[in-house]
Specification:
Layout: H1 2-15, H2 25-47, H3 52-56, H4 72-83, E1 86-93, E2 97-102, E3 105-118, E4 123-137, E5 140-152
Antiparallel strand pairs: 1-3, 2-3, 3-4, 4-5
Length: about 160
């Protein structure tokens, strides 16, 4: 009886193991590089004030619109109002750090230093931290969720 139960028990234990999706080092590098490129592409469209439809296309379809029921025209007006507050004198992006979460998911982090002049002519410096979870949909990296915050670095 023991001879029958032990092999069945071992077989059952093996069969109940979860499937692993262990990624190779080469796969992790490919995911890191492509997620980094997708993240930078999305932020470039924001900084360069590209077509608002292009910017919106960098957000996951799964997430839905992060702007609720706002139309692209409403969003475009919001973005123009945002950028009309200052002119960027310089922007220096830090290293883009990527944490691979899976074959089609990654967490991304980057800080940017901005020097701006506001509408009153005051020069300001900011550190803008961006963090995002991205997923790959149909071969394109898109924002699933993002968090951005800035702080002035020229005042104490």
């Amino acid at each position: 009886m023991r001879r029958t139960i032990l092999p069945l028990l071992l077989l059952g234990m093996v069969a109940c193991q979860p499937a692993t999706t262990e990624l190779t080092d080469a796969q992790k590098v490919e995911i890191e590089e492509s997620a980094r490129a997708g993240f930078l592409e999305g932020w470039a469209s924001w900084y360069e004030q590209a077509d608002i439809g292009e910017y919106a296309s960098n957000h996951s379809d799964w997430m839905g619109s992060p702007w609720g029921q706002a139309s692209l025209d409403d969003l475009s007006a919001f973005v123009q109002n945002y950028w009309n507050r200052w002119d960027i004198e310089s922007r220096e992006d830090g290293e883009v750090r990527v944490l691979v979460l899976g074959p089609d998911a990654a967490a991304v982090r980057m800080a940017s230093d901005l020097a701006v002049v506001d509408t009153a002519g005051e020069h300001r410096q900011y550190r803008w931290d961006q963090r995002a979870v991205m997923i790959r949909e149909d071969g394109k990296w898109k924002l699933l969720v993002a968090n951005n915050y800035s702080r002035r670095t020229d005042i104490e």
